[in-house]
Design brief:
Layout: E1 4-9, E2 12-17, H1 20-23, H2 27-42, E3 48-53, E4 58-60, H3 65-68, H4 73-91, E5 97-101, E6 104-106, H5 108-114, E7 118-122, E8 128-129, H6 132-135, H7 141-150, H8 156-161, E9 165-166, H9 168-174, E10 179-181, H10 186-198, H11 202-235, H12 238-252
Parallel strand pairs: 2-3, 3-5, 4-6, 5-7, 6-8, 7-10
Antiparallel strand pairs: 1-2, 8-9
Helix pairs in contact: 2-4, 4-11, 7-11
């Protein structure tokens, strides 16, 4: 796998996002995460997973607009269905998973973090949020189900409809993070939190997690393909394409 790394620390597997351009999500990253979720879930020596970025100040900025904007509708549909499959695999991972949000996690990056059982956010300005509506695309069906299962109802409008980004205590308030940790010793803190999960009886934890997430996963899978057309209409609208091309041009400017 070229976009992620798996490091072992005892029974803990550290799944590091390690792709150029700050973990912008493209097909290779999606395929690597899908395979990693399958492999780690099937490995009896793995007691838990820490999802974290190898980049010190960026977890993931979301979809890789530079490459994805060039796809036609059929190719983009295939990509988004693969993205949904990856989200299902991470959300249904039969191991406890902690997300260590050590840098900005926006749009697709926030979605990755939401698949975890527990989210630790780096204190001091790391931003997390879903800005899709600002770009001009609706949230994919599976993401709406994931969001409803993850944040309190009173926060849904701020997170999904206004597309705000949140940091520190505000991220805790809306449910995008479960706790804050300082940059110094951040990964060690996340591993300690994961250890708290791994101390429990693994069979009982896995069975309980599966029961808690069963209905959400079933709803995701039942309608993703049915609802993808509406998402694609937003992605390929003229106004959205213009905004995305402007954003992509900014990303490719020499620095």
């Amino acid at each position: 796998m070229s976009t992620v790394r798996i490091d072992r620390k005892g029974r803990a597997a550290v799944l590091r996002l390690d792709k150029a351009r700050g973990n912008a999500i493209d097909e290779p990253l999606v395929r690597d995460l899908l395979q990693a979720a399958r492999d780690l879930g099937a490995d009896p020596s793995v007691g838990g997973v820490l999802l974290i970025s190898a980049h010190p100040k960026l977890f993931s900025p979301g979809l890789d607009l530079v490459t994805l904007i060039e796809l036609d509708r059929a190719a983009m549909e295939r990509f988004m269905l693969l993205f949904a499959e990856m989200a299902w695999a991470l959300y249904g991972l039969p191991r406890p998973m902690v997300a260590g949000i050590n840098g900005h996690a926006v749009a697709g990056g926030c979605i990755l973090a939401l698949t975890a059982d527990h989210r630790v956010l780096r204190r001091g300005g790391a931003q997390v949020g879903l800005n899709e509506v600002k770009v001009g695309v609706p949230l994919p069906w599976s993401v709406t189900e994931l969001l409803r299962a993850s944040v309190p109802p009173q926060a849904l409008a701020q997170v999904a409809l206004l597309g705000r980004n949140f940091a520190d205590d505000e991220a805790l308030r809306v449910g995008l993070a479960d706790e804050l940790a300082d940059a110094a010793g951040f990964e060690d803190h996340c591993l300690l939190r994961l250890e708290e999960y791994m101390e429990k009886d693994l069979y009982s934890l896995i069975a309980t997690k599966a029961a808690l997430r069963h209905d959400v996963l079933a709803r995701m899978k039942a309608r993703e393909r049915e609802r993808i057309g509406g998402w694609l209409d937003g992605w390929f609208s003229d106004s959205t394409r213009a905004r995305m091309r402007e954003l992509a041009a900014g990303l490719t400017k020499p620095r």
